[in-house]
Amino acid sequence: xxxxxxxxxxxxxxxxxxxxxxxxxxxxxxxxxxxxxxxxxxxxxxxxxxxxxxxxxxxxxxxxxxxxxxxxxxxxxxxxxxxxxxxxxxxxxxxxxxxxxxxxxxxxxxxxxxxxxxxxxxxxxxxxxxxxxxxxxxxxxxxxxxxxxxxxxxxxxxxxxxxxxxxxxxxxxxxxxxxxxxxxxxxxxxxxxxxxxxxxxxxxxxxxxx
Length: 210
What we know:
Shape: globular
Structural class: alpha+beta
Helix content: 10-25%
Strand content: 15-25%
Number of helices: 4
CATH superfamily: Glutaredoxin
Oligomer: single chain
Order of helices and strands: EEEEHEHEHEEEEEHE
CATH topology: Glutaredoxin
Radius of gyration: 16 Å
CATH architecture: 3-Layer(aba) Sandwich
Mean pLDDT: 86
Strand order of the largest sheet: 2-9-8-4-5-6-3
Low-confidence stretches: 1-23, 29-36
CATH class: Alpha Beta
Largest sheet: 7 strands, mixed
């Protein structure tokens, strides 16, 4: 079981060169060797290797980390699904990432379906925590909004909570007051700076790969 803890995200650098204002350059390489499948490579739940950071430069991408056994992530899922629909309508590509090595693809597909996260999100299994390390995620749920730079690199525009449904572990509001992720998506899609890019995420710790 994944434990619960309130932590402020810490960055782990995996690239050379970073922008020091409100964004960070990151990269995530996930190319398996031919004939020797790498089980740590991120894969879509249909089985093919996938890298959310790889794509047309300038495009916006929302990557949200979730966990089937995290009650906070599950409680935030309906709001996350709503934010993804808003983001998708603004041309933002949306991915949910499951950073677990011990859960089957069937379990992850069932969770994405049952919590309304698919098909708006492309669901990804990240058993080796490659995407986790590339983006500096620490808990589920946590959302990262990036702008692709090219060659599998991206600029972080927002990293933090979905909203303030939880003010602390064990302290849940009836409804969220501030929709931080949604506001960040709308601002970025309009070409504006995100006013609050680093609100701490509250949730269940993502265990690092061995």
